[in-house]
Design a protein that fits this description.
By secondary structure, the chain is mostly helical. The protein has one domain. It is built from four helices and no strands. Helix 1 runs antiparallel to helix 2 and helix 3 runs antiparallel to helix 4. The model has no long low-confidence stretch (mean pLDDT 96). This is DUF423 domain-containing protein.
């Protein structure tokens, strides 16, 4: 599990850097300021939770059999896909209803961090 989340976290970080650069250089002249801000919010949370995935991978070295930790990692990944992904699509396409699913990704992020805290507490 630890190796898997370190790999997924590293790939997520790579994508966050690439998407951030794409937004800053490729979309700056194309998107409105509002849509660029939405895209940047997606990138920001993508970064935070890619780091979270790396943290899950590192903590998993201490708790390799923790199902709570495993759920935390999968929920962080789901949050990146749902939260950041919906904001990327919304900002580039203008499809406003994509914003309606963004909170589901936010909920994934919240639960992921709570599970990381519980897993850590249980294994002190």
């Amino acid at each position: 599990m630890q190796k898997l989340f370190l790999i997924i976290g590293s790939i997520a970080m790579t994508l966050a850097v690439g998407l951030g650069a794409f937004g800053a250089h490729g979309l700056k002249e194309i998107l409105t300021d509002e849509m660029l801000d939405i895209f940047e919010t997606g990138v920001k949370y993508h970064f935070y939770h890619a780091i979270g995935l790396l943290a899950v991978g590192l903590v998993a070295q201490l708790m390799p059999n923790s199902s709570l930790l495993q759920w935390s990692g999968w929920l962080m990944l789901a949050g990146i896909i749902i939260f950041s992904g919906s904001l990327y699509i919304l900002s580039i396409s203008g499809i406003r209803w994509m914003g309606a699913i963004t909170p589901i990704g936010g909920l994934c992020f919240i639960v992921a961090w709570v599970l990381l805290a519980i897993a850590s507490w249980q294994n002190l």
